[in-house]
Amino acid sequence: MFLNVYEVLFKFFGPQNWWPADDRFEVCVGAILTQNTSWSNVEKAIRNLKVHGYLSPERILELDSDILKSLIRPAGFYNQKAERLKIFSRFLLESGGFESLSKLSNYSLRETLLSLKGIGKETADSILLYAFSKPIFVVDAYTKRLFYRLGLIDSEKIDYDKLRKIIEGNIPADITIYNEFHALIVRECKEFCRKKPVCENCPIVRMCRFYERKG
Ligand code: SF4
């Protein structure tokens, strides 16, 4: 069923080409900055960093904290996020960069990322999937809402890792599918399965228990 949902969404929306970034460090910066804000705000903050030539771990580390805060201000919570970017940049440099960290097993890299201040499960898994190409499914509030409404899980308050493992157990461990499926869930929930759902033209309406009950 999970795979069916993926296939119908993919057929309907097409490839989403995530994560929108020029390199892996930019993916990580985006994953940190997107906490509690919209992607359009993140784009403004990333643009500021890029325009001034600060989008590298070395430059972020040496950058004066107040200047960093002002550059990422559009993404909100700029005090916390500036600190998180510095912590992540230091970690990346001290660990030998992406190549060296890639050699760690999926879960030891996950644990390492989760041990960094301000990196929660969704951020860590976004970094693992989109920057390190590790087959770990990214769960977010959209994922919980959608699969709950479809009737594939019993509660929208399901534990993060429990849902991640259910999805991982029901789709092939294929990076392309993981990558696209998460992006497609976000797209579906922004266009159709909103807080107040727009069911009539939803591509997965025939699979949906919520709609069945409603109708
Ligand atoms: S039919 Fe409605 S509730 Fe079901 S997935 Fe689509 S938008 Fe969401």
From TrEMBL:
Instruction: Extract one GO BP annotation from the record.
Output: base-excision repair
The UniProt entry, under InterPro entries, shows: DNA_glycosylase (IPR011257), HhH-GPD_domain (IPR003265), HhH_base_excis_C (IPR023170)
Assigned keywords, A-Z: 4Fe-4S, Iron, Iron-sulfur, Metal-binding
Q: Which GO terms describe its molecular function?
A: 4 iron, 4 sulfur cluster binding; catalytic activity; metal ion binding
The HhH-GPD domain is annotated at: 33-191
Which SMART domains does the annotation name?
A: ENDO3c
Please give the coiled-coil regions recorded for this protein.
Answer: none
Q: Does the keyword Iron apply?
A: yes
- Sorted alphabetically, which PANTHER family does this protein's record hold? A/G-SPECIFIC ADENINE GLYCOSYLASE/ENDONUCLEASE III, DNA REPAIR GLYCOSYLASE MJ1434-RELATED
Q: What is the protein's given name?
A: DNA-3-methyladenine glycosylase III
